[in-house]
Amino acid sequence: MVYFRAKKALTSHGQSCLSESLLSYLVLPDGVRFISSDDMGKEFKTGEDLMDRYDLSYYYRRSLEPGTIVMVLEHNQEVAGLSLLVVDDNTLTIEMLAKNMNVKRSGVGAEILGCIEETIADQLMVNEIRLESLNRKKLLNFYNRMGFISYGPPSLDREWGIIFPMRKRIVSLEN
User: Fold this and answer.
1) pTM of the model
2) CA 85: distance to chain centroid?
């Protein structure tokens, strides 16, 4: 079964090492794929000035780092959404989750989070997903609706402002 092969490959290579061969074990749903060098010239705008300083070539380069996964959600051959994930031990950290404001599609964030939980976290058999939310009521409410809870005090980031650490515990029969 794919899930057990992915976990076995992960543990045999060390928890913080995700190789290209390991990614080939992960099965993604239709419309979701890993970022590729072909994405580097495509436009991706979030409408958030700080986030828009980083283009798809930045995220592609980050995907080459050990323990890092960058997945994209496609819509009509465009990158509709993007998530940068870091795997460490039994935790999956969402370092970035964003929607391309140039693509007219609703539910992008929920679809990506669902894929992270139901596909990536399940196949890698992690027991917790973490993220840091910007201090935006709409974002905090969204993450709460998706099952994330605060687990520590907010902190002040020089660039991003107040950020809230959040997590969601994953319950799985395989864990």
Assistant:
1) 0.85
2) 4
